[in-house]
Write a structure and sequence with these properties.
There is one protein chain. About 40% of the residues lie in helices and about 15% in strands. By secondary structure, it is an alpha/beta fold. The chain has two domains: about 140 residues, Aspartate/ornithine carbamoyltransferase (Rossmann fold); about 150 residues, 3-Layer(aba) Sandwich (Rossmann fold), CATH 3.40.50.1370. The chain has a five-stranded parallel beta sheet with strand order 7-6-5-8-9. It is built from twelve helices and nine strands. Bound molecules: phosphoric acid mono(formamide)ester and norvaline. Phosphoric acid mono(formamide)ester binds next to helix 2.
Length: about 325
Amino acid sequence: MFRDELMNHFINLKDIPSKDLRKIITDAKKRKSLRKKLSTLEVDRGEPLKGKLLIQMFEKASSRTRISFYLAIKQLGGGTLTLRSGELHLGLGGESVADTAKIISTYGDGFMLRTDKDKKIEDFKKYLSIPIINGLSPSSHPTQVLSDIFTVEEIMKKPISKLNICWIGDSNNVLNSLIAASVKFSFKLSIGCPKNFEPSKELRNWLKKENKKIYIYNDPKKAVAGADVIFSDKVISLNDKVNKEKKIQAFKKFKVDKKLISFANKNHIFLHCLPRGNEVSDDVFLGKQSHVWQQALNRVHVQKSILLYCFGKLR
Ligand code: CP
Ligand code: NVA
């Protein structure tokens, strides 16, 4: 049971109504433009999350998610406590999720979890009386992708539904969330990946139920043809339990380089959630069509509105 009935969890984009996701983006746009003259730690007018504590726990490494959530809640008047699971009795195997969730709900107002097990998020959700935010799980990375939608619209100055979006890379957590977003925001999504690394059957069945078609190619040039936005991500994700050499070999043809992007629309942009590996060449990643730093900064702005949504304060 939630402490306050207006609260919301933020776990998977596919379970959040489109109108709420759009509301988050609209709020982020407004807040970002209103704080043009404010410095990093200055608080937004009205201090909407004054006195609120977000407890964030990382079972895997993070640079952007950790720092951007710290800034996001600070700019709303609240604060964070960041934990590594190995520092807790839970992480050492000495306490249950149920008891840990009750303790976190006692001390904090919101909980953000980056975990290696999707089930853990569901288990926490069961016992928390405060909202939980998925800060990356094996199956999704919803805060990243919602902020990527914001970045695409900010740069292209068009609703994403009017653009051709392309993903070159592994069928990982970020792509899963992008696929969910393609339904929620109605955009065309083309994916370029090797045959053995296509999106899961489960996700494809969900797309069928949603009456949504996505385009999957095993030839990266076909996926990129006519793209307005090209996304990529690491071939080997955090704690990916695969034969790394074999997987990297399978993706050899899928490197995003100058030659590949020449098949995209002339004014296309390149985005990447970071950290990067060898899936993109330096000249593309650092080239003029790349907006990866703006993309990283926007995590702060969009996560502020996600926090307001979770705390039932999104107007
Ligand atoms: N993009 C992203 O989530 O980065 P971190 O792993 O550094 O948080
Ligand atoms: N797919 C990557 C995203 C990192 C932010 C991973 O899970 O490691």
